[in-house]
Amino acid sequence: MNPSRQAPAVTHDLQMQVVVDSGNRVALSATLDYSAHDPFAVSATFRTGEGDITWVFARDLLRDGLTDMAGVGDIVIRPGHPSRGPIVNITLSSPSGAAQIEGSRHDLAAFVHEIFTAVPEGSEWLYLDLDRTIDDLLTTEGGGAVGY
User: Which residue, 40, 59, 79, 117, is the most exposed by fewest CB within 10 angstroms?
Assistant: First the structure.
């Protein structure tokens, strides 16, 4: 990353809902974070009674899921059924279980608009710190260099 270039960051707090048994819904607070330090990713932190759960996924996945089904496997984002109003469904799957979360299409679209305004598509490379990435790849967690 160019040291003189400030890395934009965007944070939105949202009220979402998690779908539980029999289609009932429970309020779920969430925070979406974006930082140009990792220009291709978004993190979503969901606050539950058992603690915070954070998922990190591609910002393109969130953008694409506003209008069409996007993603396979662990994260699938798609527009909700019209009978539910302007919502977006986010399905999260892990070995410990799965969750279906609903969020306001308007709120999610506002976040997506802001992050793509902060770092337009195609300009992500301006914020990549290649030296740090190479150092991370060549250094073990304990701080020693990887032998070859």
Answer: 117
